[in-house]
Amino acid sequence: MRLLAALFLAAPAAAQEADPVTPASIVAESAPEEWVAIAPQDLLVMELAPDAQGRVRQVVIQLLPPPFSQPWVENIRTLARAHWWDGTSVYRVVDNWVAQWGGGEGEEFAEKPLSEGVVSPDAPYAADGVHRMIDHALGEQVAIFEQVFGTRIAWPFGKDAYAPHAFILRGWPLAADDMRLNAWPVHCYGHVGVARDLAPDTGTGAELYAVIGHAPRQLDRNIAVIGRVIEGIAHLSTLPRGTGDAGVYETRAEDTPILSVRLGSDLSDPPAFEYLSTTSASFARYVASRANRNDAFYTVPAGGVDICNVQVPIRRTRE
Amino acid sequence: MRLLAALFLAAPAAAQEADPVTPASIVAESAPEEWVAIAPQDLLVMELAPDAQGRVRQVVIQLLPPPFSQPWVENIRTLARAHWWDGTSVYRVVDNWVAQWGGGEGEEFAEKPLSEGVVSPDAPYAADGVHRMIDHALGEQVAIFEQVFGTRIAWPFGKDAYAPHAFILRGWPLAADDMRLNAWPVHCYGHVGVARDLAPDTGTGAELYAVIGHAPRQLDRNIAVIGRVIEGIAHLSTLPRGTGDAGVYETRAEDTPILSVRLGSDLSDPPAFEYLSTTSASFARYVASRANRNDAFYTVPAGGVDICNVQVPIRRTRE
């Protein structure tokens, strides 16, 4: 994997004198047609109460596409349409762990029944029997890297501490088992999952958490990942940490109220986002750059990158 | 590595009915003699201005031992003894990246010369030629695992995305090159490094950062890691994110003032900490449990753990 670094060093003299190539410069120079729009029905827009200075706090979550976690994603769409989260709160924040909100503990929820049809799914946390999808994704990665860099460049997710395979498919970091039969979404910074009790079948999606620290990959396949925060994560990561049991705030006064949670498709003027196609040439260059930082600041490229440090580029769609 | 999970499942029936074994329960049941005191001269105690509610904000940093980054660590001891940081501030906070403080940009620092002898070290970010140390550390790990679990248990840091070897030595996560000649400290959540300009030899230690997001391992060997926050990281991770260039606050009024930074050995009543010896039987059990969560909540053990997710147990020394 050192080859990539050599490749950048071997660039023409003119290119070397120009501004160095960085992940940010690659994204800035990508072509408009390399970006893929995110559908409004895949966005969840959460409005928290304004902060102490009266500033709006909006958190936008992108929901995970099929074949992953869809029974929970459907519950979440149902709850958003029913305005179920309005008036709930962020009530648990643990440093280097999660911020958690929605249907929580406490008597106030006893009188807030879930929407019709929202039950805890009896569904797996990994997609089973998806070997064609996995092989296709792994093949696509190799192909785009070969096309952009030549055949001797290795895909840089060679080593993952938590799974035999780590890869990116349609904008999402995923992992797969040794036999490449099952694939599952992973817990990275900003990713959102379904809180549950001790028994695995106790989470509906009414109670959610976002990761606000180092990727807790040990949760993979133990909880349903349903999406990721694509804007506004700092409104959650900067909240005071809870001092009660398991980081729950000791008093309800410490909670951050949730004014509303809506599906993008239910808003008259939804925010519009797009992601850099993960089969584009610019994405291949972006990943290679992330794995081999060798620019004005960096002098020792790592030769690899953790799947949670790739951070698929996502931006507001330009008007 | 699935063996470990099997091992826990095969525990006697009585043990199965008892409370499940978790990383926390292993730490709670460790023996007092398995803990190692941290010397007061290895502690840096930073007092931030009180928060809006008037609460004290103290951040305690443990400095890295030899053979790593010692020229910067010595600079830092010198600056602390000179009270150099008193009156400086935390002036840059970037979500999922770092909080940064000390000798920063701005005219106020033009009149604040560094202490006598504090210059930018011409030193490497990795310790070179330490193959005996590395082999000893890797051997120790295997030995303690064999002793506790039997010979068929693999050490769970088999795969690291950023380095050929990842290991823990005297309480610190480290990485090493393929030939096991050079070793270096890694960037994990809470770890502290020396900010610098573009040229590698421009950091003195007067300007420091702490990681407040997913481990930015691409910085390894590109910056000097000098320690880690062992208490009070939330006082940094919850700070508002900066909205100026590179996350620097746009106005000095947004900064968090630093009242004082002192070496533990210069305080009349320093805080006392200890870490769980990383060659103890309890630490082997702790790592195995982290790599194979299989308790009341977890049902699918990962079979491995990222070196930055091990989190060596550190606690206040009991009186």
Automatic annotation (TrEMBL), chains A, B:
InterPro entries: Cyclophilin-like_dom_sf (IPR029000), Cyclophilin-type_PPIase_dom (IPR002130). Residues 73-249 form the PPIase cyclophilin-type domain. It is an enzyme of class 5 (isomerase). Pfam families: Pro_isomerase. Keywords: Isomerase, Signal. GO terms for molecular function: peptidyl-prolyl cis-trans isomerase activity. Its EC number is 5.2.1.8. Residues 1-18 form the signal peptide. This is Peptidylprolyl isomerase. It comes from Alteraurantiacibacter lauratis.
